[in-house]
Each structure stands twice: as structure tokens, then as C-alpha cells.
């Protein structure tokens, strides 16, 4: 690295260490495509109205997700700092940054348990290829005894190690390289598994469930779930897109990048649905719930198909890759913050943040066994971290971005590269539509408002 006269490590790191144009788009797609697309999306689609829900989700992505995504990227590139200092620089006031710190905490909190699930997917890849997953046909008890023991802790360590090492290697040499190899790899895996799923006997019923809309199945609640998921799926409200935006060069069009990321996220969700629904319908499996769908229901399908352990392995590797590229973006938020605020070198910041986040995550890894009974308010440690970060910090972060860009930051349009009618539409969505909808989801997820 060049000598650094200003002694501002983040500035110097940014100058020498930036994404290439495609590198940025791939890294942002890597962040957005994660466990959210691969297991949460198919399962909530199953629960909240199938194809009709999918259409609402697309609407939410376009009209709320995209404008906020572009705003986050613009704040990052315009403010050139962490999720705290970018707000301070652009607004000239400390108050905005104080809220930005909630996003740093949110990313840290999500990562502490996201790393645990990333670990599960790696364990499942291994036991699929060795075949030990298929030795006992009771997949529910296999899953229960795995997550109830101490093995998840070892996999959590591995997930954090990989994430920390990638981040320590820097933006171009670490994060960009990692995503440039893995995101196209992910597409290949998805296509192989989709072809496998769609050619199974009886796959049509799964496709129909996923893609043939029945609007009578939609409820107000499903609309809110779709909206909340659009935020989670695009990695919004946690400072991740903002932090990546910090490392984008001046010439890149942020508008095009945002559209590419939104489209990429949607494609991966679509294909994930075209893998999971045909596969489970073909084997007569109920579209179960959450982690259960992927870890307990799908293995039965793999066990029954020829070369099942290979397809099982590919599927879980796919999940692991999707999870790790998102994990890298989550942990980068507090790492950039530590470099900026505490003036640490990247390597040092990566080391400490990874270590502390792992320690905070240990009880989450044990929440399904030894610590399962520690559940104040009916939620385990894992559930609390998920609840507070996804349902409280994420909407607060999203609201901050919309209000800041819509009302406080006068030069937002310039940074985002928008003029004329498109700029006006963007501002309208950021000022009026997105904040109102975010507040409604927020109250809904806290249980303040209820729908039957
Ligand atoms: N978008 C990721 C997923 O779909 C999760 C995520 C949320 C990542 C927030 C970063 C920030 O799994």
C-alpha cells in the first residue's frame, strides 16, 4: 500500500481499493442473493398465496426496493465512509450518523446468527456427498440432533473464518474476487438443479403452485410480508449496500447497477422456486416451514432420486455459497466502520470484528440444544437476534435511508445520476410511498397492528 500522509486509513484504502464495475454488481448481487432467496422466499411463497404472492413481491421490489437500493448506494458513494460517517459527511450533522450506527449494529446482529445457518448448509453439503445424511430416513430427527449438539459450533467457526479471511484480503483482492468466482458458479448450480427439478415426474404441480396466481389467496398480511421480504432480500436497511457503495468508482452508473442487482435478485428467487417446488411436489412432500423445508423435507426427495447424494451436495453447496457471499457483505459493514472510526487497518478490523461477532453468535449456535430452554418471552437467543435485527433494526435503517435521501440530502439526484421525470418519481417514492409502507411493516412486525 502507498504511504498515507493523511493518516486516514479508510480514505487511503478506498483510493487504492475499489470495485471494478462488474465486480461491484456481482458483489451486490452476492449480498442480496442469500438464504433469503433460497429457503425463506419459497417457504413464505408457499404460505402466503403462491404465485399471487410472487407477483406482489415483484411489485414491492420494483417500487420500494429499487428506489431504496439506489439511495443506499448513492449515500455510500457520496459520503465515502462507513454507515455512520457517510451520513455525517453528507448532512453536516452528527444526528444522522447516530442512526446510521443502528445499521452497523443491525448488520453485526444479523451476521451473528447468519453465520450459524451458513454453517448448517456446509455440514449438510458434507453429509450429502458422504451419504451419511441418507442413512436414517427420519430427517427431522437427523436435523434435530445435529442442531441440538455442539457440531454447529465447529461449522460456525468455519463460516466466520472464511468470511473474515475474504474481508481481510480487501475489496478488490478479497470481496470482488470471491464474488466473481462464486456468483457465476451459483448460476450454473441453479440451472443444473432447476433442470433436475423440472424433469422429475409430476413436477408440473409444483410449477403451477409457484407460478399460477390465485388472487383470492392474497391478504393484507401477505402484502406486508412481501414488502418486508423485498427489503431483506435486497439487503436493505443494514448499511450493506451503502458500505459497498463507498468502494464504487465515480464513473459507474448507480442506476444501472441498482437495476441489475434487483433483476439478479429476482432471477435467483425465481429459479430457487423452480427448484424447490417441483422437487417437493414430485415426491409428495408438503411445502413445510422455514428451515424445515430445506433441511428436513428436501433430503427425502434427494434420497429418492437417482444420484441423489450428488444433487443433495450441489443443492447445499449452493446454499452455502449464497449464504457466504451475503455474510461477507454483512460483516464488511462493521469492518468498514472500525477502519473509519477506530482507524484500524483492514486486517486488524477484520480480525477483531470477526472474532467478536463469532463470540456473540455462540449462544445462537447453541439455541437449538443446550440453550433451547433459555427463552425469555418465548424466544430463544437465536430468535431474539433474528427478531430484533430483521423486524426492528432493518425497518429503522430503511426509514433512515428514505427520509435522509428524500428530505435532507439535497444532492441525492446528482449522485444517483437521475434527472427529469425519473428523478421526480424516485423522490416521490422515497418521500411518501416507501416511508409510509416501512412504518406499516414495522408496526405490523411488532404486533402493534394485526390482520386476520
Ligand atoms: N439479502 C440476504 C438474503 O437474502 C440477507 C441480508 C440481509 C444480507 C441484510 C445483508 C443485509 O439472504
From TrEMBL:
Annotated localization: Membrane
Membrane-related topology note: Multi-pass membrane protein
Transmembrane segments: 51-75, 95-116, 153-171, 183-203, 223-245, 257-281, 301-328, 349-372, 392-409, 429-449
Keywords assigned: Membrane, Symport, Transmembrane, Transmembrane helix, Transport
Source organism, top-level taxon: Bacteria
Similarity field: Belongs to the sodium:neurotransmitter symporter (SNF) (TC 2.A.22) family.
Record protein name field: Transporter
Organism of this sequence: Tumebacillus lacus
